[in-house]
Amino acid sequence: MSEDANTSIPTFYSHRSVFITGGTGFLGKALCEKLLRSCPDIKEIFLLIRPKKGLTVTDRLKKMLKNKLFDLLRRERPSSFDKIIPISGDVSPKDLGLLVEDRKMLSEKVSIIFHVAASVRFDEDLKNAIFTNLRSTRDVCILAQSMKHIVALVYVSTAFTQCDKPVVDEVFYPLEDVDWRKTIHIAENIDNEILKIFTAKYIHPMPNTYVFTKRLAENVINDFSESLPCVIIRPSIVVPSISDPIPGWVDNFNGPMSLVIGNATGVMRVAYLDSSVVPDWVPIDVVTKATIIAAWRRGMRNIAEDTSIHIYNCCTNNLMNLSIRKILRVGQRFTCDIPFEKLLWKPSTIAIKSHSLYYIMVLIIHIMPAVVLDAMLKIVRLRPMLVNLQRKIFVSLCALSFFVTNSWHFNNSKFISLFENTNTDDETQFGYKTLLYLDTEEYIRNVIIGCKLYLLNEDMSRLQQAKRHRNSIL
Fold it and tell me: Which pLDDT belongs to residue 1?
């Protein structure tokens, strides 16, 4: 039965069990922390975690909880961590790699699923992208169908699943040319080397395997929505937090963070991008709140009352008004006062829109100095690394190029309504006002500090030494 429309968000989650895939990732961590802190009576959170590098899932959970993101929760309610239960599994293998007993237990207890896990590598092999992003979505849906108390299945997609369209609405876009079932069958039965040969043709017009498989996964959700209460959340470019629970929190080098750090360390002196483009950025704390609210909204109506997919473009519609040019310019100014410790050159990045010119400039400004410096490192018996670093930067920027040289308009009226239609009591924990009144320069400053603290593990107490080092280099 549907619940009282006045039910608050924390009350909705009270005494309910949640299952999160991708719980150790950027959004997964933030989602887990926000649920525990803002919905204190939640019963338990099951996290799908893959054992790796000799670490058990319990070891990986303990390591995750040491992240500074959880410091506030650790101070206020440390007993909340007892509600997190690691489940051994992996989204890449068939059936999520779940044990039979764990699958049965999840089916008995869980009523809300957040399917967050994905390979976000733009250069991922098609086979791996299909298994991780597409087949896993099918298997999550199959698992959800066995759950006796399911009230919401939230699939975290991406706004760029429709990047072949200049304007993207909050609707489902059927994909008629490619069938997701056949795509999974092909990946399971054709050799990876053969798949690589026809990847570009198969995924056309999508720019990479990531957005292609995420687009197909939306079709999976659509097909299962007749029997499951489904939600699709489409974030745009996810960036560090505004303030909740800490300003500037980030935990990966993906996407724009590679640009920020490459610029701030002086490693990236030329970049292939259009600096006038104003990408659609969305802070991680806004995405987290929207995802939690969307599950609450979907859970208010059962599948008999509402068989539609709830779709939200989790985008700010350029509300942040942060062009790439402004980020680079303001970021360079702040790195004078908050320099990174391991500077190669003083921060200065030339934005180039011509791919051929960019290639020439990379050879002159990036590769040639790197070859010379690596040779000097060899002479003093140190490990050469700069050529390899510049190669990684080149590959990363080429993968990003499509998204930093083009613009889209993502209609987001349904997304905005998520925040406007919450109860008054929920405003403090799930409000949108921090974005509406955002000081963009202060935000960029917090991003610089966040990269320094949370990605590079540098200490603000060593700021004077970092400034002296900055003043000593070219």
Answer: 36
Question: Strand pairing of 281-283 and 237-239?
Answer: parallel
366 and 387 Cβ atoms separated by less than 8 Å? no
Q: Collapse the DSSP code of 40 into the 3-class scheme (helix H, G, I; strand E, B; otherwise coil) and give the result.
A: coil
Confidence of residue 2 (pLDDT cuts 50, 70, 90): very low
pTM of this structure: 0.93
- Tell me the C-alpha distance between 227 and 224, whole Å: 6
Q: Are 29 and 23 in contact (CB under 8 A)?
A: yes
Could you give the CA distance from residue 132 to residue 466 in angstroms, rounded to a whole number?
A: 41
Let me know if 364 is exposed, middle or buried by CB neighbors in 10 A (0-12, 13-18, 19+).
exposed
Paired residues of 18 in beta bridges? 45, 112
Q: Closest by alpha carbon to 249, among 415, 115, 449, 96? A: 449
Half-sphere exposure of 151 (CA within 13 A, CB side): 22
* Residue 455 vs residues 239, 261, 265: alpha-carbon distances, Å: 13, 9, 13
* Alpha carbon 265 to chain centroid, angstroms: 23
- The gap between the terminal CA atoms of the chain, to the nearest Å, is 67
Distance, in Å, from the CA atom of 231 to the CA atom of 117, rounded to the nearest integer, reads 15
CA dihedral 204, 208, 211, 212 (to 10 degrees): 40
Q: Is the pLDDT of residue 288 over 80?
A: yes
Record the tokens describing residue 223, joined without a space.
């097909």
Q: How far apart (Å, rounded) are the C-alpha atoms in residues 89 and 56? A: 11
CA distance 424 to 430: 10
Q: Which residue has the higher pLDDT, 123 or 234?
A: 234
Q: How far is 167 from 414, CA to CA, in rounded Å? A: 15
Contact 467, 339 (CB under 8 A): yes
